[in-house]
Structures are given as C-alpha cells and as structure tokens.
C-alpha cells in the first residue's frame, strides 16, 4: 500500500496549508474519482470551542495591529483559515491566534479552520514558522520558541536552522539572548532595543551590560555606535605617549565587525611585520565552547 508523502515543514506554511479554495462555500477542491481531496477541507469551527496553544511562541499581541485585523475581518471576513487540531472536547490552535482573537472580539460564532492531526513538536514548529512568515516575533519570543524545540522536542540546532531558513550561527546567537539579564530582556520585549543591539551587548564585559543597554535605549544609540563604544571598552586606548601597536584601516575594521557579528564576541585584528594575529575574547568556559563550535563547524 502506498503512503502519501509527508509534507516538509521546512518549506513553511505553503507546504502545510496547500492551496485552499476560496472560503465561500467552505469545501475542499474536487478530487479525481476514488482519489484523496486535492486540499484540506475548510470547516467552520465554533470560536468558543478553540483554545490557545500553550506553547505558542508569541506572548504579546500589538493592540493596534489587532484592531486593524478586526476592522479587516469585519469588512472582508477571514481570508486565510486558521490551523487547529482536535484536543479533548474542542480544538487547540496550531496557527492563527491573532485571527481567532479578532473573531472572538467581534463576537463571531465561528471561524474558518483546517483541522490537522499534529503532535506537540509539529504544532510548535508550525506556530513559530507561521509567526515568522506573517508577523515577526520579537527576538526573545523567537529564541524561546527555538529553545523549546531543542529542549523538549529533540531538535538539534542544525535542524532548527534548516526548518527556519537560518544559519546555525544565527540560531546559536538567538539562543544566547535568553542568557541576558531580565532588565535587558524587558528592553528588547518593549522594542527599546533591537536584537542587533542585544547581540552587540553580549560582546561587552558582563558587569557593564545592563548600564550599556540602558544608555543605548535612553539615548537611541545606533548598533554601529554601540559596537564602537564596546570596542573601546574591550580595547582601551594605550597610555599617553605609548601608541597602540597598530592602527587598522577601514577594511580591517569592517572585517573585525563581521567577525564580531558572526561570533558574538569581541574581536581584534592585529597586524605586524610579515604577519599578525586575530584576538577573540570570551567570557567564560561556556562561551569558549560556543565560539569553538562556530569556528569548527563543517
């Protein structure tokens, strides 16, 4: 007996949702005699029988964006069905919580949905992909979702990177944000600091990170300016009368910046007669192992 090929999550929601027919009528596309439906049937599910996914990576919902979505649904209806799975006497959301919330706020009795058989790992993975494609998660929400895939659902960093279309260093650097102090995490969650600011701060001495984050948020310091400040902290000017061994040019500084971005660590290129060295600073043994994994990655 032949088995239908499993859809790959790495291709995103298109691979999961197929190409739904227009919502009017709510039926699946016609299939060849004796064959399976070409797409999943869209059903009208009672709004009050659906509950949120407890593993939903998004923790905050922008009120203004939700109001705009409510206005759109009020005028045009739900143009893209939500994705749910059966749980107990009702349904659990896999993707589409904003649309479900908007329908509940509008006191709609039903919402168009596709019902899927999905385990916890697939449900979480789709929730992350759906949010990344439709409305970006903030950096901490994305990192928390990635961490849950790794810690509780046996994904490797390489597998997560492939699923989300990211490089492994990008996944590694995202996870590092979870180790920041709560004060800095709050600034990221509020939008006062970007993920790029946070990655720059990770290369600063641990004792100075909170103060640097507060200054960057209050003064609106750019990422590039913040990197220069941190570079000065990590490599203070030589005492008066003792110039530094080398003065790197623009290309060398750009090279250092690219290495800092990739490694999430302070980096300095030192040139000498006939050669030179690259200095990479690490905070502790865990940080050293992290950097080594990136450098030795095949």
Structural account:
This protein is of the alpha/beta class and 298 residues long. The chain has 2 domains: 9-26 and 39-137, Conserved hypothetical protein from pyrococcus furiosus pfu- 392566-001, ParB domain (Alpha-Beta Complex), CATH 3.90.1530.10; 180-296, no CATH class. It is 47% helix and 12% strand. Strands 1-5-3-4-2 form a 5-stranded mixed β-sheet. Strands 6-7 form a two-stranded antiparallel sheet. Strand 6 (267-272) and strand 7 form a beta hairpin. Helix 4 packs antiparallel against helix 5. 28% of the residues are buried. The model is unreliable at 1-39 (pLDDT under 50).
Descriptive key words:
alpha/beta; 2 domains; disordered N terminus
Question: How are the SSEs ordered, and which strands pair?
Answer:
Elements: H1 13-17, E1 43-46, E2 50-51, H2 63-76, E3 82-87, E4 90-95, H3 97-105, E5 110-115, H4 120-134, H5 139-153, H6 157-164, H7 168-176, H8 182-189, H9 195-201, H10 209-219, H11 223-234, H12 250-263, E6 267-272, E7 275-280, H13 285-296
Parallel strand pairs: 2-4, 3-5
Antiparallel strand pairs: 1-5, 3-4, 6-7
